[in-house]
Automatic annotation (TrEMBL):
Belongs to the deoxyhypusine synthase family. Pfam families: DS. This is Deoxyhypusine synthase. It comes from the Bacteria.
């Protein structure tokens, strides 16, 4: 960054429910993040936490839960993510009707948007402002919207809101699936964005966790170089925080050198893996970058 470089951040799993927004939002506001790729869960769960935080329940001894304990949580509408339970009524159902109106509006206008654009529309409408239960400065999605950052959400289909969207198409409330742009359209968007942002600067790849949030965007480099056969700047660096150890075919646990053979990194690319808990390590690194 001191040399004019930029950073691309990927957020796997359910980091929003782990409240990573507290440090990520500050990074965004200080222009340390220039693009984000995240799971559908992270996109929606930042909003869930924004409007229902006081209704969340913590279960420190989650490993000791019995099947009967899990059933009891289910019957109370408490959806568990590791040691944190998201309340169905206060979080998910609180925003469903508002998002449905945005989907319907786009449908009727013959328009299509990416998942993050619908979330930006939701936050920009102001309908949720009276329901905020955390300090808005701790929402990374609000910070990203204020900065106009692109948020790439591959595999959005694997999320609560996507399930809800599908149900409304099947029931006829929405006439077409194309209201939400597809994953291949998302890759096309990423190609154009990557070429533009790397035209005059290096772009580093900082991966929190594994999974599709990291797998999807890192492929943009070989796509441009090998499939489009165009000149392409490689990722400026690769850094990952992961608790997935190297094993049989695990991409999340693959060492950075494996990416060299696929044309994603070079032998000279600064590469690092921190094998630890990202919910602990990421805030430490982010605050170091912020000078805290």
């Amino acid at each position: 960054m001191d040399k004019g470089g930029k950073m691309f951040l990927t957020l796997a799993g359910a980091m929003s429910t782990a409240e990573l927004g507290i440090s990520v939002a500050e990074l965004i506001r200080n222009d340390k993040v220039h693009g984000i790729c995240c799971t559908g869960a992270n996109l929606e769960e930042d909003v869930f936490n924004l409007v229902a935080h006081t209704h969340y329940e913590r279960i420190p001894q989650y490993r000791a839960l019995s099947a009967a304990d899990e059933v009891a949580l289910r019957d109370r509408g408490m959806n568990r993510v590791t040691d944190t339970c998201i309340p169905e009524d206060q979080a998910i159902r609180r925003i469903e009707d508002h998002v449905l109106e945005l989907w319907k509006k786009a449908d009727q206008a013959g328009e299509s948007f990416f998942p993050y654009e619908f979330m930006y529309q939701l936050l920009g409408s102001g309908v949720l402002e009276g329901s905020y239960e955390i300090d808005p400065k701790d929402s990374w999605l609000l910070a990203a919207r204020e900065k106009g950052l692109p948020i790439f959400v591959p595999g959005w289909e694997d999320s609560t809101l996507a399930n809800i969207f599908t149900s409304h198409v099947i029931s006829g409330d929405i006439s077409r699936y194309g209201v939400v742009k597809t994953g291949v359209e998302l890759m096309g968007f990423l190609v154009h964005w990557y070429k533009e942002i790397t035209a005059n600067s290096s772009l580093g790849f900082f991966q929190v966790g594994g999974g599709i949030a990291g797998d999807f965007p890192i492929c943009v480099v070989p796509l441009i170089a090998q499939d489009l056969q165009e000149e392409c700047r490689l990722w400026g660096y690769f850094a990952q925080i992961s608790d997935s150890t190297t094993s049989y075919g695990s991409y999340s646990g693959a060492v950075p050198n494996e990416k060299i053979t696929w044309g994603k990194l070079d032998s000279s690319t600064p590469s690092f893996i921190i094998e630890s808990d990202a919910t602990i390590v990421a805030p430490l690194i982010f605050n170091y970058v912020l000078g805290n």
